[in-house]
Amino acid sequence: MLRNEGGSFMSEIELLAPAKNIECAMAAITHGADAVYIGGPSFGARAAAGNSFEDLEQLVRFAHPYHAKVFITLNTILKDNELAEAERQVMRYYEMGVDALIVQDMGLLKLDLPPIALHASTQMDNRTPEKVGFLQNAGFQRVVLARELSLQQIQEIRQACDVELEAFVHGALCVSYSGRCYMSYVSCGRSANRGECAQFCRLPYTLVDADGNTIVRDRHLLSLKDMDRSDWLLPMMQAGIMSFKIEGRLKDVSYVKNITAYYRRRIDAILEGHPEYKAASIGKTTLFFEPDPEKTFHRDKTPYFINGERTEMVQLATPKSTGTFVGTVQSVSHNSLTYSGEKELHNGDGLCFIDAQGKFDGFRVNKVEGRRVFWNEPVEGLSAGDKLYRNYDIQFEKMLAGKSSERRIALDFKLLEKNEQLVLQATDEAGTTVELPIQEDRQVADKPEQALQNLQTQLSKLGNTCYQARKIEVETSQVYFFPNSVIAGWRRQIIDMLMDTQYVVETHGCASLRDDSRKLPCVVETYQGTSLQKLPLSQLPEAVNVMNDKAKDFYQELGFGQIEDAYEKIEKPNVEAHGHASIQNSILMTCKYCIRHALGACPKEVKSNKTCGNVDTRLIASLRNEPLFLKTGRHTFQLSFDCAKCEMIITTPEGK
């Protein structure tokens, strides 16, 4: 919390963007991100998005002049033989100035870590005040909340806990509670909690009832639309969220630019009308394009439970990007179509459609003549009346491939005399000031006005830096003349000083203030007696996904009665030829999303077997003929439903 000029408190609001590499990270910052999260060489929850220490150090130096922060994802569960390397990497991150680690494995708290801030990953399944309070007492500076929480649930957590709260606002959705999906590992040996998810939720499934009757065939029954909470930003701030997170550490740079810019604009519009909030970083972002979330990877959109409602959230036809609706097909020939709609198409655009059988398909545009579109390769299944979407906008992509933004920090210069010493000061918009003593001999200017103008001109030449001169003042007893080359030398020196000072202030200076915030004894000695969470040990959060002995020690010291080993401790799940894992009757997913609700047969909403809206009574009857099964390829999974909690559970089939 900060105070504004009027003396009232202000909350810093952070826009947190994803980065699979340094190019994406720098693009996110120049397009308005207050912070970025990125993987290191290993142990991140996206194994395909690793980065070298050298690139990460370069990123830290790039980000900190903007007061933008760099968070490293170290959010996998770790084997015993990986802990030493993880400890070494953490020290390296601390030394280079990384601002925080996003972690999942509580075994890290038993290592000899430097006083770097820790954020509790959403992979820790953070959805109750008890769990968040526990993590706060364990020394976490921030908790990344479960995506499934409503505004009311967020408010309840905020009222109970003082820790920083972060929430996702945009991007791909896991159908399971994060950290509680084991389907990929049990089915093919690729663990989501180890950064290797095979995305079984994106596969097509056939749904059958207890008698083997097919209810739905070959539909993407677990593939959710993408989250878009851009209309809910202010209510989320008011509920207690301070960091707004964009998903997408495997997305390309055009996605990062576009979505970051879109949310920067939306957040800035809120900040302008609400002085109780301020941006968490500095520098003005100027965009050279109009951001549009439908123009880069876009699976339609859902606010996903934020309003407490179960609005349409599954995309049955495809897990792929559907993009922007452009019009309706009017006619089809062997190599072209005509369409009605206001959007202009271009050669090279990618178009897609869903045919009468519900099959998703697409093609690349070869030529456009008005409202007639031509293609080279045969297109099957397209008919008059089909809805046409553009999921690759070539003009938009070309625009993003160039210089699509710049971000500049306002900088004030002042030339003054201190104790008879001439000094040049530079102060950025956050108030960080550096001083450069002037060693050159003074020469009174013969033409004072010209000398002053020349000083302003030379100090304003900041084009190859992240700064922009805002104000230049001279407070000296006389006006002095200095050659252009001398003034240019001052400018270079003081910019280097400012960036170096900023680097120190934003890393070890801040980190040292958190030295006492992450200590295991504060949990062991004070947890039960704390005024924040007075819980008996029987009500402590679950201890799950325990992969290493350090994590087990952590929970045992706190008196946890039940500690669940990670599925991944079984080196190979031994999937049999018919597709059923040797781990039987095991919970593979726990989901707030429900297939029965999505298909219109929620028992809470359909009180009888009468037709409800457009839902077929036979469909309702089949969906109640339990147990239900999902089948894909050689894999079969069983469904059960906890209607009291509004949860769907996916397990390995009983007796298989």
Can you walk me through this structure?
By secondary structure, the protein is α/β, with parallel strands linked by helices. It folds into 5 domains: 2-179 and 222-295, Alpha-Beta Barrel (TIM Barrel), CATH 3.20.20; 180-215 and 574-656, no CATH class; 322-401, Beta Barrel (Thrombin, subunit H); 408-513, no CATH class; 526-565, no CATH class. The protein has an 8-stranded parallel beta barrel with strand order 2-3-4-5-6-7-8-12, surrounded by 5 helices. Helix 1 (22-30) runs parallel beside helix 8. The chain is globular and about 100 Å long. The chain starts with a strand and ends in a 5-residue tail after the last strand. Mean pLDDT is 89; it is low at 502-535, 576-582 and 608-613.
Structural class: alpha/beta
Mean pLDDT: 89
| Biggest β-sheet description | 8 strands, parallel, barrel
The helix content, as a percent range, equals 25-40%
Give the tally of β-strands.
32
Gyration radius over CA: 28 Å
Features:
15 helices; TIM Barrel; seven-stranded antiparallel β-sheet; alpha/beta; single chain; about 650 residues; Thrombin, subunit H; about 25% strand; 5 domains; eight-stranded parallel beta barrel
